[in-house]
Amino acid sequence: MQSSQRAQASEHVPTHTSVAPGPGARAKDRAPSSEERHGATVVDPAMAKRAVSAAALGNAMEWFDFGVYSYIAVTLGQVFFPSGNPTAQLLSTFGAFAAAFLVRPIGGMVFGPLGDRIGRQKVLAITMIMMAIGTFAIGLIPSYAAIGVWAPVLLLIARLVQGFSTGGEYGGASTFIAEYSPDKKRGFFGSWLEFGTLAGYIGGAGLVTLMTALLSHDDLVSWGWRIPFLIAGPMGIIGLYLRMRLEETPAFAAMEKEAAEQEKQRRTAEKKTGLREMIVGQWRAMLLCVGLVLVFNVTDYMLLSYMPSYLTSELKYDETHGLLVVLAVMALMMCVQPFAGRASDRFGRRPVIAAGCIGFFVLSVPALLLIRQGSLAAIGLGMAALGLLLVCFTSTMPSTLPALFPTKVRYGSLSIGFNVSVSLFGGTTPLVVTALIGATGDKMMPAYYMMAAGVIGGIAVWKMSESAGRPLPGSKPAVASEAEARELSTAA
């Protein structure tokens, strides 16, 4: 991990920090001579695939933990926030949900610079185990009936631990993959990060759906709700083992030894890089990041986190059927995800993201009207339309956002910008929309909210530069083969 950072500091190769080579790999497989001969880094396909797999797997585990809270929000409201008003219960539950997002920028400010300093993989391992601890702790908290007000207080503390750890996850994982990908395939490789997110969501939604189908309401409220949270403990241990095992290979040790000089140079440069440079020095890129993340996360949390509760609490739709619909939509998104990522490599990030922004502005109202019809077919069609539009963002953001920032501040700047936007706009979506519906009585508020997000995202797309097929700022070109490196050198 440290070795990857040394490589990053030299500004010559995309950081291959996420996964070390296998036991049989040799130091020369990193092909430094190719860069010297052709001015480009040849990415080992096998190593790149392992990097993507490790990042996606860790992301899936984190978002299983984080997402379960959303899927079982109605039940949690009854356990931790007793009230005769279901809307008040849901508001209280989503208030605790939103609170976790308030500390995400703090987590980004801590873990982002740390990832630029000690390496991506170590920080990602730390965030994953913290998330597992926070989620596991929720499963152990007594109910309001047992300990009174201490129950929601402890729930809030556990949610803050989750939020703090998540502050370092996305920026690190997307940086991790982007720096390991060939320039012409960064969109395709990056799309697998959100594939992992969807897999985690499906795991959480599937488990909650199974429990709601098999358990009575009383059993679910008394003890069943704890099961998905308690699973987080073993999952966190497994995930930590996998990442640490990948790091501790002979090739990684050899890479550490070879990069001693780069490490010295990196530490010298590090002292000159602080939060001011990460934020003020990157103000334009930071604003673009906030705008892109806003449309991405408002629509993401609206569809995957809020809609199950919206169907149940606002439209009085059967809870099990609502979760099954969301589960099917996420499976559809997973099928489309890699193809959309590849399309962004071919046609560019801007056209794909712009299509999503325009689609949400034009189709949010028709899609929600379909959902409100109440039939399974209408709900499925409306949710599927929103899900396919969301893929325009999930497939491109992991490759688009890292390309906004130079290598030496990428993890830190991206983590800060991403989490500020998520905290202010994405994570508050369920709470704000629920409150707006309660205040106005207008159940079309989710559509209006997504339309506004589409406008803001469209402005960000208009102002951003195309990054598809181009080197990351501060890095040499990254290619998939020696032949491509030679062609690039000849063209130059």
Describe the protein's architecture and organization.
The chain has 492 residues and is mainly alpha-helical. The chain is 77% helix and 1% strand. The chain contains 26 helices and two strands. It has a two-stranded parallel ribbon. It is globular, with a radius of gyration of 22 Å. The two termini are 32 Å apart. Residues 1-34 and 247-256 have low confidence and may be disordered.
Distance between the termini: 32 Å
Strand content: under 5%
* Main beta-sheet strand count, sense and barrel state: 2 strands, parallel
List the uncertain runs: 1-34, 247-256
How many DSSP helices? 26
- SSE sequence, one letter per element: HHEHHHHHHHHHHHHHHHHHHHHHHHEH
What is the gyration radius calculated from CA atoms?
Answer: 22 Å
Return the structural class.
Answer: mainly alpha
Percent helix among the residues?
Answer: over 70%
Strand order of the largest sheet: 1-2
Quaternary state of this entry equals single chain
Shape, per Cα inertia axes:
globular
Mean of pLDDT:
79
The total of beta strands comes to: 2
